Amino acid sequence: MIVLLVLGIVVLALVLLSLIRVGVWVEYAQKTFTLRLLAGPVKITLFPRKEKQPKKPRRVKKKKKKQEKQPKTAGEIFDLVKQLLPVAADAAGQLRQKIRIDQFDLDLTVASADPAKTAVNYGKLNGAIGMFWPLVEQNFKVKAWRIRTNVDFTTDHPTVYLRAAATLTIGQIFALGVRVASKVLPILTQPKSGNKSRQETQKEAV
Asked: Where is the region Disordered (predicted)?
């Protein structure tokens, strides 16, 4: 009975852990860029980094020389990339379906010294957004968004403000990782074609 209770608690903990959303949060305003890592309610600032105090220099230990592996030939690299491209394309498609845009706030103000040019650029900007944003909604799950465009004829400097957050669950990351690994590992562990040809020639000679 105790074993079943412990197993049930472990399974419940894993399920709850798989539901935690992780992702990134970005903000750009007045040439200031901030990047944070999201893990549930926790936010970890990745950029800008805080300045660290200089550490004392450590003694460098001499490392033993390891046997150098023979580099892959251009043909082997090309064959490997050719095999991995479909896997990468499939992973990108799966990742795109799992990512959720939790927040997307964009404020754009068009301005320049020439009022006529400002008006033209304002029209082009709205046209570009009208083409770009439907593609985002078709390819990603969007929870909340707001886009505002303004025109200012009294200043020469355009302004941009962006705040966005995109996340996916730990369970989705794990499932995608298992799927990709199941396809990539057989490709990486397969014997080289050169070794195969040598083995075949040796058999024929025998």
From this structure: 51-72
Show me where the domains of the chain are located: 23-48+74-201
- DSSP structure string for the chain: -HHHHHHHHHHHHHHHHHT-EEEEEEEEETTEEEEEEEETTEEEEEESPPPPPPPPPPPPPPPPPPPPPPPPPHHHHHHHHHHHHHHHHHHHHHHHHH-EEEEEEEEEEE--S-HHHHHHHHHHHHHHHHHHHHHHHHHSEES-EEEEEEE-SS-S--EEEEEEEEEEEHHHHHHHHHHHHHHHHHHHHSPPHHHHHHHHHHHHH-
Q: What per-residue confidence (pLDDT) applies to 163? A: 96
CA distance 21 to 166: 9
| pLDDT tens-digit readout, 161-199 | 999 999 999 999 999 899 889 988 888 887 765 554 555
58-72, 79-93, 104-118, 163-177: least confidently modelled range: 58-72
Q: Find tokens 């962006």 and name the residue.
A: 162
**pLDDT band, residue 23 (cuts 50/70/90):** very high
Which pTM value belongs to this model? 0.74
Q: How far is CA 156 from its chain centroid?
A: 35
Q: Which of 162, 170, 161, 178 is nearest to 38 (CA)?
A: 170
Which residues touch 169 (CB under 8 Å, ≥6 apart)? 18, 19, 20, 21, 22, 98
